[in-house]
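The passage that follows is intended for readers who have already worked through the single-chain material. We present the inputs for a multi-component assembly, then the predicted structure in tokenized form, and finally a short commentary. You are encouraged to pause after the input and sketch how you expect the pieces to fit together before reading on.
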Amino acid sequence: MKDTREIEKQIQRIKTALAEKRASIQDFETLIGEKVEGELWGFSEKALEKAVWDSFFYLERNKDCLEEEPLTSHRRLVGRVIVLFKKTWRALFRPYSKMILKRQNRFNRELIQLLLASLLRIEKIKERLDALEAKAEILREKQD
Amino acid sequence: MKIALFSPLHPMKSGIADYTEEMLPLLRKHFEIDLYVDSKFVPTSPSLRSEFGVFPFQPGSFSASEYDAVVYHMGNYYPAHRFVYEALRTNPGIVVLHDYVLQGFYARRAEVVRNFEGYRRLLETYYGKSGTEIADSVSRRAQPPIWETEEALDFPLNEEVLELATGVIVHSDFVKERLERKTARPVVKIPHHGHILKTFDREVERKKWGLNQDDILISSIGFVNRNRRYELVIAALGKLASPRLKYYIAGEDRGKLLRDLIAASSVRVSVESFLPLEKLESLIFASDICVNLRYPTMGESSGALLRQMGYARPTLVTSCGSYAEIPDWAALKIEPDIDESALLKAYLAALIEDPDFRLSIGREAAAYVQSECDIEKCVSRYADFITANANKNRPGDRA
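Having made your guess, compare it with the prediction:
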């Protein structure tokens, strides 16, 4: 190699090859070079969007951990005694559990807010990206 | 003109000791110099001891008024710079700031002198609530500590040193621009000088390191810290899976960071915690490729890097801080982004496969160090700055 320009060209060739390789990679696992655990990775963009919102609404519905679930027992004869015992037990420890769960509730509410804000931001960014892509397409067509 | 100079010197294992010792014989042509050293160490260099006045620093006995200027080499490594800092606190002077971030220095000092409250107050003074949060995280020993994170550049804790400085010498525009936003004191950029190079026979040196004709020796030198990106380097070399590769790391692994990485790797990795300078230079000279990644940066300039480039080795660096200022053709620069790992592997593969590419980059690296970091030019600029800012350490002269 004769001069610095040749070195810069060689560096550019390496970077371009890397960029092309990255562009040709279709799936995330190939990109990062290792297996990813979890079924979400196989989802299409639309399915992923649905899964994200489903999960969000599930979390949103269940954010209140002070909400008490009904106590039941599957045993026929001694069931009532067991339920009574569970109720007494729960009432006895309610002040302590409330103390802890109130804090958890506050945390959950903040987390849900944060998640929602992040998801909405992603939506807005996606909208802007779609609009920019549409504009770019129009410009490309005009250029052709 | 007579100056007092505070700097770590050998036997302290510090790049700044190498730096100062190389510069002193040339600086001596401009000034009469008294060297002040940590009272726990006696300089090992016989020529320094015979050619300079060498004094162990004692806080009560130093008199700045005997000198036209006092120069302090300040860095982040507490054992090497503790006496420099203590002297600066009572005698303002010209500071050569080798690291922009001094968080590690202050945290270690708080531990050693057992004054955590003072450390907390200092942080609070300069950074308010964020400062006390930093102090809390340091006291909890939260990992990683702030000086190993990107946040460190926002909270460098160099303010006290800047207030005590009558002028500041730095090695990069990256640091200079940041300091000029924080202080009205004169700040000058003088590049880290290139080292005085020895002559080696490459074949002889390669034999010493047990290398065959076809072997490719890759080396890294300097303290083993998290920001040196060894996990990426070892992983990239593992993916290249070439039996010709040998990787040599010369640096103290104080945190035992390499143990697990090496155990899990298929690459031949050797680690030596400390190599004397001659062996270190022999290693660089025998190497085909040098790797000197650092992210996040503490705003330091690497003497090791200039040694690698000076010996015409193609070197990979992270494109951040002062390293981003190296021309693209003098070192292979890697952005610390999503492609970091892939680009590192691609550059290593290209260098391994193409001896011409290695030679070209090495040649340009050496030419860059020779022209931009010439030691005589750097020392002459030191002399100009010291002369221009002399006498400001005397009472009543402070800006």
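Commentary: Residues 330 and 365 of chain B are 4 Å apart (CA to CA). Residues 2-102+158-192+375-388 of chain B form a domain with the Rossmann fold fold (CATH 3.40.50.2000). How closely did your sketch match?
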